[in-house]
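In practice, a research group might receive sequence data for several interacting partners and want a quick structural hypothesis before committing to experiments. The following worked case mirrors that situation: the sequences arrive first, and a predicted assembly follows.
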Amino acid sequence: MKSEPARLEIFLARLAFLLCGKSVYKTFADGLPVAGGERVLDFGCGMGTVAYYVAQKLPHGSLTCLDISERWLKACRKTLRNFRNIDYLHGESVALPGENFDLAYCHFVLHDIPESELASVIPALARSLKPGGTLVFREPLEQIKKLNLIKRLVEQNRLLLKDSRITDIPLMGNALESVYIKY
Ligand SMILES: C[S@@+](CC[C@H](N)C(=O)[O-])C[C@H]1O[C@@H](n2cnc3c(N)ncnc32)[C@H](O)[C@@H]1O
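A structural hypothesis for the assembly, expressed as tokens:
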């Protein structure tokens, strides 16, 4: 069971968002394949750091923000209070509807999930994508063992690598950014 964040953690995340929102989260959002009408999933949305920028790119689409933590989801609702194209989902990925999303993204989430849970989380994420849909993740490079497991699980679930690169993220260090397409 995932523990809830302390108030201080939420405060620090909000501060990082205010100080580095554009250089960290907007750059990631700008790289996502969003034209404006897609159904998009932010898996592990936290306080809505990336979602804040993605929601602005979806005038005709919708964004589902999912988090296992009620407190993070509450903070996310606050960040996104001015947007009307958002759904909020609390809980586990296994409850996700099948073949529903054009795009799902995970920003610094998968490395945080225990290996035993990744074995069900990643298939559920893959199932939730429409055929031809895209999965994008950005995860810290230092967790190389976890990254190798993530890559293996992703490729076992009908997702084909389209693009992968290492980027240096302000305050966060090197991260692996990968894009997969569901076949
Ligand atoms: C490091 S935070 C990143 C939040 C946000 N994506 C960002 O980059 O600011 C990781 C988030 O993943 C969520 N999380 C962890 N395990 C999860 C799971 N199994 N299902 C959904 N969310 C999860 C946590 O509650 C937390 O909000």
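Before designing any experiment, note the following. The mean pLDDT is 95. The chain has one domain: 7-182.
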